[in-house]
Design a protein that fits this description.
The chain is mainly alpha-helical. It has helices at 3-18, 23-36, 42-63, 72-96, 102-105, 109-118, 124-134, 140-164, 172-192, 197-217, 222-232, 239-262, 269-280, 282-295, 300-309, 315-326, 333-354, 356-362, 364-368, 395-408, 419-427, 440-448, 465-478, 491-499, 512-527, and strands at residues 388-391, 412-416, 432-434, 457-460, 483-488, 504-507. It is globular, with a radius of gyration of 25 Å.
């Protein structure tokens, strides 16, 4: 890759991160700058972009439970949203045909419907990046957004198959059946892989060969194959480890994806103006997603944050537009318009997602009016009297929970944003509930049920630093005056947590050795095999 690309991409990503925006905004800007400098993307950048998308879909599959796609808010919500969005956009564009705009004057009704369909999708890449950075992939709104995006991807595949007249090979069914048949053998191979480079290489093999290449060979989309193979191995005990191992590679290759968006086309004044008009239509998509999700009994906050994650156009819009251009249904300038509109919605949606909780808190009373009666079973807030609350019931949270229960008894509760994890702990007899420490509604309920009189200690064991910071902010806004502790991965994060008023910040990498030594010492003391040079407290 050209050093100029790396330099400009890094500088733009670094600068926008300093003002609180996701680095992906900087990568988009870098693409525009490189475009203005006359740089062309070329095959290397496109390959990197394709690899990033394939790995992204594979890692989504590793975390996805297929039954979640059959929830009404996913399949019905996606279908209703797409139909209503296409109808609305088509009506607006039909009005534009009477204004003399050159790009609309030659469009008949099928072409207008095609443009509306292309713009009805939201970006999977953008939503996953934003949700991962905030640690909200497993939250109710994160799960809803991901489910909707996957349903959109499935509909896009159906359209591409029909519109190109290129049906999947008769061998496609054989490939699908074959993947199910070889799954036990893939599990055995994963069992025998170590925890290092072999596991990473096997992940690439699954995503690029077993998934992507096999689907391409039978005229199906490569990234759909990566998603499906990820879903097939998602129940393996090492699936989570595999997703973490591929994280750095996926992030690096996705830089190429965002650069290619900015490098797509140089705009004219007309295409830029039309892209701005299309950007102004995005609020309709957001409002419609919000209203539909509320009708399916999600809380207003969950509906709002899921809608913000979907507040953009999609890379699939470019693919649909390319099909239209190739078949002579659309003028080539439409690809430029969609690419610019896609970039602009990314730039606007990034800060919108960062400010999501603040927007909800400011307009909470207005938004609550749109909640349906009853509550979605995945979006409940449960009562929980306890003196000690541990948020994030992964390995670190579980260790903290077991220790506190041993020392403090039944006055300890675990809280996790993932319903599957919470249910697994409950099945093992642990006092764990579904909850989101970054959710102001959660803390409002605590206040309404007697305030913080009983709660004395909050332990934040969530793996994402931004999630822990957001939880501290919500605790302070709710008026909690007890003790707050939190984990972090790096020393600068420890300093930031202390600046926010955390009483105890724990670097679980740096202090893991201390915990290990304490455990060994206590076991040796208990069994009477303590080395003679060690001091024993006689008190």
């Amino acid at each position: 890759m050209d050093p100029l690309w790396l330099t400009i991409a890094f500088l733009c990503g670094f600068l926008v991160r300093q003002v609180g925006l996701p680095p992906l905004v900087g990568f988009l800007l870098a693409g525009f700058i490189l475009n203005a400098l006359g740089v062309e993307g070329g095959m290397t950048l496109q390959v990197a972009a394709d690899l990033g998308v394939i790995l992204l879909l594979f890692t989504i599959g590793l975390k996805l439970k297929i039954q979640s796609l059959f929830k009404p808010e996913i399949w019905a919500g996606t279908s209703l949203h797409m139909v209503l969005t296409v109808a609305f956009f088509t009506a607006v564009f039909w009005g534009f045909t009477h204004l003399g705009l050159s790009l609309f004057t030659d469009l008949d009704l099928p072409a207008l419907l095609l443009v509306g369909f292309a713009l009805s999708f939201s970006s999977t890449v953008f939503a996953v990046k934003v949700l991962e950075e905030k640690g909200e992939m497993s939250s109710t709104h994160g799960s809803a957004a991901i489910g909707i995006l996957i349903m959109q991807d499935v509909l896009a595949v159906v359209f591409l198959t029909v519109s190109t007249g290129k049906l999947p090979s008769p061998w496609a069914i054989a490939v699908l059946v074959g993947l199910f048949l070889v799954r036990p053998y893939l599990y055995r191979i994963m069992d025998r892989c170590d925890h290092g480079e072999l596991t990473i290489l096997f992940g690439f093999f699954l995503a690029l060969v077993v998934g992507a290449a096999s689907f391409e060979a039978v005229a199906m989309k490569a990234d759909l194959g990566a998603l499906i193979i990820g879903m097939l191995v998602a129940n393996h005990p090492k699936a989570k480890e595999l997703a973490k191992s591929l994280l750095g590679f996926k992030e690096l290759f996705l830089v190429g994806f965002f650069l290619t968006i900015g490098l797509a086309e140089m705009p004219t004044w007309e295409t830029l103006g039309l892209a701005l008009v299309l950007t102004l239509l995005v609020p309709f998509k957001v409002i419609l997603f919000f209203l539909l999700l509320c009708r399916f009994k999600l809380r207003a906050r969950s509906s709002l944050l899921a809608s913000f994650s979907l507040a953009n156009y999609s890379e699939f819009g470019l693919i649909v537009g390319a099909v239209g251009v190739a078949n002579g249904w659309l003028a080539a300038d439409w690809l430029t318009v969609i690419a610019i509109a896609l970039s602009l919605t990314f730039l606007l949606a990034a800060p919108l997602n960062s400010l999501g909780n603040g927007v909800y808190h400011r307009y909470q009373q207005l938004l609550l009016r749109y909640e349906a009666r009853g509550r979605h079973p995945d979006d409940l807030i449960e009562p929980w009297p306890a003196n000690i609350a541990i948020f994030g019931m992964g390995r670190i949270g579980l260790g903290a929970y077991n220790f506190m229960v041993e020392r403090c008894g039944t006055s300890v509760i675990g809280v996790d944003v993932n319903e599957a994890i919470a249910e697994e702990h409950r099945n093992k007899g642990r006092n764990v509930i579904l909850g989101d420490a970054t959710d102001p509604d959660f803390w409002d309920l605590v206040k309404n049920r007697g305030g913080f009189g009983k709660l004395e200690l909050v332990m934040l064991a969530m793996p994402k630093h931004r999630a822990n910071l957001s939880a501290i902010e919500q605790l302070r806004k709710a008026g909690f005056t007890g003790t707050i502790s939190a984990i972090a991965m790096y020393d600068d994060q420890i300093a930031e947590l202390r600046d926010k008023g955390v009483h105890a910040a724990f670097n679980f990498y740096a202090e893991a050795g201390t915990g290990f030594a304490e455990h060994v010492y206590e076991e040796a003391l208990r069994t009477g095999v303590l080395p003679s040079v060690c001091e024993v407290d006689q008190s």
